[in-house]
Amino acid sequence: xxxxxxxxxxxxxxxxxxxxxxxxxxxxxxxxxxxxxxxxxxxxxxxxxxxxxxxxxxxxxxxxxxxxxxxxxxxxxxxxxxxxxxxxxxxxxxxxxxxxxxxxxxxxxxxxxxxxxxxxxxxxxxxxxxxxxxxxxxxxxxxxxxxxxxxxxxxxxxxxxxxxxxxxxxxxxxxxxxxxxxxxxxxxxxxxxxxxxxxxxxxxxxxxxxxxxxxxxxxxxxxxxxxxxxxxxxxxxxxxxxxxxxxxxxx
Length: 251
Description:
With about 250 residues, the chain is α+β, with helices and mostly antiparallel strands. It is built from ten helices and five strands.
């Protein structure tokens, strides 16, 4: 089991860049550059990324209340916020644990599911006519408080690994380098400080978990560390919702 796949998805930053572009804060060239930096070339059936962006713009309803772009993350103990048994839910199970939900017109929700490979990203598009399950809709403050507590717990655990084996690298240095990875390639200027803070905290906790479990190979704290996954995913989804709402309100 890959720790990184459970605590991180390029779709977080993809969602923020797309919403900023949809609301006119970023140019098409900037969003294309950002998406390619995130996951390399993009494939949309037999079409280019520009075709995908065109279809996203035509399909997304920015006028109603609530975030027009939602990040959906799932994992152990946290089912995907998609209708059970739907084609989109089946595709998500096949390809990973992350999807984008675009609010369409006439009650339709468009579900975009990426499949990441070394060659790039292939996108699949689904339409849901049934109402999606409601997310937690935590405020940034609530999500940050939960993740702050998780950060404290994770910091205590990472300190407990120090000196257990002489051949292990410095856990703190490894955490720092991984946190830098999670932050690449950054966020658009329209991202709210609250959302950026949530993402940064989520990156930090994710880096701690990956350092202990994958890099240091220490599984002594697996039950405690794995229980933090849900808090990380929830913080990322709450951060995206805040960033998207701010884009819509300032467009």
